[in-house]
Amino acid sequence: MDPIRNPYAPGAGQRPPELAGRDEQLRTFEVVLERIARGRPERSIVLTGLRGVGKTVLLNALRGAAVRAGWGSGKFEARPEQGLRRPMSAALHVAVRELGHPVPDEVDQVLGVIKAFAQRDAPANAKLREKWQPGIDAPAQTGRADSGDIEIDLVELLTDVGGLAADVGKGVAVFIDEMQDLGPADISALCAACHEISQNGLPVIVVGAGLPHLPALLSASKSYSERLFRYTRIDRLDRDAAEVALQSPARDEDSEWGREALDAMYAATGGYPYFIQAYGKVAWDVAPRSPITVEDVTVAGPEAEEELGVGFFGSRFERATPGEREYLRAMADVAAEMFAAGEELDETESVPTAAVATHLGRKPQSLSPARDGLLKKGLIFSGERGRIAFTVPHFGKYLRNSA
């Protein structure tokens, strides 16, 4: 098989050649865009799922739909060490420019509000040279989105941006990846702002993507967040969608997969989009001819697993401290013990924190620093009180095989 024509694309956030299994989410979003544009009430959207299920890819596809609908859009990735003001300002700056409002003075006024919102990231007594400059030519507006209270300021900012969009019969969509990494104050402000713009019927929508515990973080911030967002869980592909993800790109290159090869691929990848692309790329390269056979998949397996072990699993494991790695390995061992005892485990291998402490012969309180560090790094999450789980599918298997 010609490696130059290999259609598979294993990369972080890289769109696969065939976005299989996400038609429902794309159709629903197009309806949301149209309803908001017509002044109908709609909720902002939160996508949740494990790593490797394609949340970022879907987020980018939804942004593409917003652009095609003529909306202004902006996107940023939340980071634990960064506040909301700078990335939100940059995203809205792009969105306002995309709107194409015909009155320059009104555009400059809103850009001035965005600038004031961004500059408030610095202390009130900071000198001009110490304030972050967002690259907006318009002068900063005084008395709007610059109070220093992030909740008040974000409400005012999105209200002004929404008004500008309404003038031209369009909308604004802000896309936030890794949304669980926003700080508590920023999450609270975002919920309050979404609530306000929804009540006022403004054409602004926030689309966030994050790990499975993101809904719990939003609910802990504002009780009404359970009704504020449309929550959509992004999961692994079913057997039919996984086949489309492999077969359709191959046929575009005048090749195909054998039936047994597709069965073997689903067994190896579990239907996770990232794994499908990783295994698919290697299987294509090792296959001597079309159709790709089950023997080709078998030969490709070790190389694909080695690549995942270095890039997908290993890179995450290396980010952990020695104490955190010990905690991760203990989680994997406890999950194996639970499975051997007849308990069913899902792909996250959720285990009791008390069992991890018992396995290590430590008091649970002494393991809090390691657990909290892994939570902040996004390597584990707590789906329910007293339990902990991997954010990366098959991570427990990787740890046990590499022990």
UniProtKB/TrEMBL annotation:
<feature type="region of interest" description="Disordered">
    <location>
        <begin position="1"/>
        <end position="21"/>
    </location>
</feature>
<dbReference type="GO" id="GO:0046872">
    <property type="term" value="F:metal ion binding"/>
</dbReference>
<keyword id="KW-0408">Iron</keyword>
<dbReference type="InterPro" id="IPR009056">
    <property type="entry name" value="Cyt_c-like_dom"/>
</dbReference>
<dbReference type="Pfam" id="PF13191">
    <property type="entry name" value="AAA_16"/>
</dbReference>
<keyword id="KW-0479">Metal-binding</keyword>
<dbReference type="GO" id="GO:0009055">
    <property type="term" value="F:electron transfer activity"/>
</dbReference>
<dbReference type="InterPro" id="IPR041664">
    <property type="entry name" value="AAA_16"/>
</dbReference>
<dbReference type="InterPro" id="IPR027417">
    <property type="entry name" value="P-loop_NTPase"/>
</dbReference>
<keyword id="KW-0349">Heme</keyword>
<dbReference type="GO" id="GO:0020037">
    <property type="term" value="F:heme binding"/>
</dbReference>
<protein>
    <recommendedName>
        <fullName>Cytochrome c domain-containing protein</fullName>
    </recommendedName>
</protein>
<feature type="domain" description="Cytochrome c">
    <location>
        <begin position="166"/>
        <end position="332"/>
    </location>
</feature>
